[in-house]
Amino acid sequence: MRSPFNDLPKTALSASYWLFVVYLMLPLSLMMAMSFKDGNFIAFPIGNYTLSWYQQVVQDQQFLSAVGYTVLIALAVTLIATVIGVWIALVIANDAMPAKGVLFALACLPAVVPGMISAISLRLFVSSIDMPTGTNAIILGHVVHAVPFVVIMVLTRLRSMPNNLVDAARDLGADNFIAFIRVTLPFLGPALVGGMIFCALTSVDDFVRTFFLGGYQPTLPMLIFAKVQGGMSPEINAMATLVLIVTSAVGLYAERLTRRSRK
């Protein structure tokens, strides 16, 4: 006879999972609900609902300018970090490469360094090379933080790649470059898509490094931070809700595309 106590670990795990989901979703749900409040301040009860805050946000030139600037930086960071990350992953995957463990640890180091420490060190670095704060400095800081995630994803995919694929391409007359373009790069497709999306979302969300490296033109997190300093209003909730919807849609699309590519 099966004891009911045998299902306790599974039940506890399931209950913990749903409690964690509620813990994550409840603050987000409250934030989204407050964005529809017909009032100038965030407070309960909500009372009447309105879409005027969303209309105000999408017509705000400062918000649109910050979104465009943030997307521009994210695109540059994604391109540069992907190229550097793929190159580092290929070097580490090479069996002839000595001290691969040390190289892998150095490549992943920016991902584990606290954001504040990383931002301070990057600010000192750009000052030492006389690079002015602004777009280039922000891109540099975001790339340093994003490269480790590309390295990990690409390296994981490379380790599952059969060696005979590249060998077969070379036997058919392809040199190393052609073999990389025609065989290795398509095989890395799912990892590249995931890594690029992760780089873009990480760049959009990065506040600490942008705060230390930014210039006069604000990114989206900097703009929201500046508005929060002036007092909480449903306009800020509307901005955050729009960002949440877009980033969630991009993340879900990337997950779906990655799964389809793996199949």
TrEMBL record:
Q: Which domain of life is it from?
A: Bacteria
**SUPFAM superfamilies the UniProt entry points to:** MetI-like
Q: How does it sit in the membrane?
A: Multi-pass membrane protein
Kindly list the biological process annotations in GO that this record carries: transmembrane transport
Span of domain ABC transmembrane type-1: 67-254
Which InterPro entries does this entry report, sorted A to Z? Answer: Bact_Polyamine_Transport (IPR051789), MetI-like (IPR000515), MetI-like_sf (IPR035906)
Principal location listed in the UniProt entry? membrane
Task: Report the subcellular localization.
Answer: Cell membrane
The answer to whether the entry has keyword Membrane is: yes
An example Pfam family from this entry, by short name, is BPD_transp_1
Q: Which family does it belong to?
A: Belongs to the binding-protein-dependent transport system permease family. CysTW subfamily.
> This chain belongs to which protein, by name?
Spermidine/putrescine ABC transporter permease
Source organism per UniProt = Limoniibacter endophyticus
Q: What is the lineage of its organism?
A: Bacteria, Pseudomonadati, Pseudomonadota, Alphaproteobacteria, Hyphomicrobiales
Name the gene.
potI
